[in-house]
Amino acid sequence: MPVPQSRGVVARSLLRENAYRAIRDAIVDGTLAPGERLNDGDLAQWLGVSRTPVREALTRLEQAGLVRTKPGRYTIVSTVDVRSVRAAQSVTAAMHELAVREALPNLSAGELDAMREANARFADALRRDDVDAALAADDAFHGIPVIASANHAIRAVLDQFTPVLRRVERMRFSSLSGRGSVAQHERIIALCAAGDVEGAALAVRANWGTLVPLLDAMPAASENEPST
Asked: Which fold has domain 15-77?
């Protein structure tokens, strides 16, 4: 299994979470490609950790729909399954809408400024065709109301279902279809600043709904068992 050449990239603290995030990000950005076998020993060597946090990370990634495991036989990176992504998109949109509804009554001027700054970074990243920076800025933008909502259940659900969307979002932000999100973000900010809870919540749901046409254009994926 080819893995990135850098080693020891996971800090000794928070090994489980960091191992999960490192492997998740490698799947999302395509370093670990769909259908690729994952060997926990190779991953542990790459990350500079024992096999235990790697195995725990792979279990979480299977729950998130990013890997498939046949106990005692193989673990592979999942292909993009449109049905699973549709389900994740629906849940994610609902959670972000709920976050705005709960956050907006107490959203501060500083948090609105942070949303503006994140959207400016998002727009700049799109202009430079920097998909990684665009995803990070988009995360930051939507993460502000999520944090402000102080609803840990929302964050837990998003942590589970957002990763499976990231591979599709990479396609969107690498094309012209993603450029419209800048204006949508601006509208969300304006509605939040005006205190329009209903309008802002619906605008957030509509923003996440822009993934649907991309999903409609994708063929249904099938995953065959790897040959032994």
From this structure: Arc Repressor Mutant, subunit A (1.10.10)
What single-letter amino acid sits at 67? V
Residues 115-137: tens digit of each pLDDT? 999 999 999 999 998 988 999 99
The model's pTM is 0.80
Interatomic CA distance for residues 135 and 173, integer angstroms: 8
Dihedral angle, C-alpha 158, 160, 162, 164, nearest 10 °: -170
| Rounded-to-integer distance, Cα 184 and Cα 181, Å | 5
Render 123-138 in DSSP notation, one character per residue. Answer: HHHHHTT-HHHHHHHH
pLDDT of residue 224: 54
Give residue limits of the domains in the chain. Answer: 15-77, 82-216
| Contact between 99 and 90 (Cβ < 8 Å) | no
Token pair listed for 183: 């204006």
The CATH class of 82-216 is mainly alpha
User: What number of CA atoms fall less than 13 Å from residue 9's CA on the CB side?
Assistant: 17
Radius of gyration, CA atoms only, the chain: 18
CA distance 70 to 74: 5
First to last CA, the chain: 15
**pLDDT tens track for 21-30:** 999 999 988 8
> Distance (Å, rounded) from C-alpha 129 to C-alpha 147?
28
Give the span between the Cα atoms of 57 and 67, in whole angstroms.
Answer: 10
| pLDDT band (50, 70, 90) for residue 177 | low
CB–CB of 158/146 below 8 Å?
yes
